[in-house]
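Per your request, structure below.
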């Protein structure tokens, strides 16, 4: 049975189990193990239709996928630019601090400053050097991984329904488990709770963030 173990009852949180009627139709209802629910049988076809309807709801066209990827790539490029600039500024500051330390040591050797000032300033510069080094380390250059991952996910959503239709029972169950974190039956109606990031795509769809 396709939906075995995938759905729970909204009211009692118990298992929703299937039954075969007239030797061919699969129906599901709360198993009612807590004896607080009324058994209301729902056809498997109707439940699957709701789930596949969800894939339609978050369906994106190729143009929409390209638009989102462009947006992410632009953002990543800006971020790279910012990181490069920050790295350049920090490196300049580090070089300057190193020069100051060298000069300070020279002045100390030449007897131009007293020992107290020398140690005081040396510690100040060394602290500065350490702070800048740590900050520089925190700005490591990223990659284009985000845009690539986003494209993979969006294309997976695009092909999900087709993939579902042509899959084996096991694969169908895996796909549903992959897309939905929570499936509950609420008085004969199916509640779908998509996993991240699919819920975000559904939200974007609802808000029509892109041009039609
Ligand atoms: Zn129940």
């Amino acid at each position: 049975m396709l939906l075995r173990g995938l759905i729970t009852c909204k009211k009692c949180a118990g298992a929703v189990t299937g039954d075969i009627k007239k030797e061919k139709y699969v129906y599901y209802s709360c198993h009612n193990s807590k004896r607080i629910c009324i058994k209301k049988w729902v056809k498997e076809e109707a439940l699957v239709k709701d789930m596949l309807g969800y894939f339609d709801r978050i369906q994106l066209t190729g143009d929409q996928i390209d638009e989102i990827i462009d947006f992410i790539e632009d953002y990543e490029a800006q971020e790279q630019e910012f990181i490069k600039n920050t790295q350049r500024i920090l490196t300049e500051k580090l070089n300057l601090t190193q020069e100051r330390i060298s000069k300070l040591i020279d002045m100390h050797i030449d007897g131009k400053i007293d020992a107290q000032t020398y140690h005081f300033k040396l510690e100040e510069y060394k602290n500065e050097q350490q702070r800048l080094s740590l900050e520089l380390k925190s700005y490591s250059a990223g990659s284009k991984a985000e845009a690539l991952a986003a494209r993979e996910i969006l294309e997976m959503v695009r092909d999900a329904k087709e993939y579902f239709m042509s899959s084996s029972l096991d694969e169908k169950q895996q796909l549903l488990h992959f897309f939905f974190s929570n499936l509950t039956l609420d008085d004969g109606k199916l509640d779908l709770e998509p996993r991240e990031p699919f819920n975000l795509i559904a939200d974007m769809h609802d808000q029509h963030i892109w041009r039609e």
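The chain has a mean pLDDT of 88.

Regards,
D.
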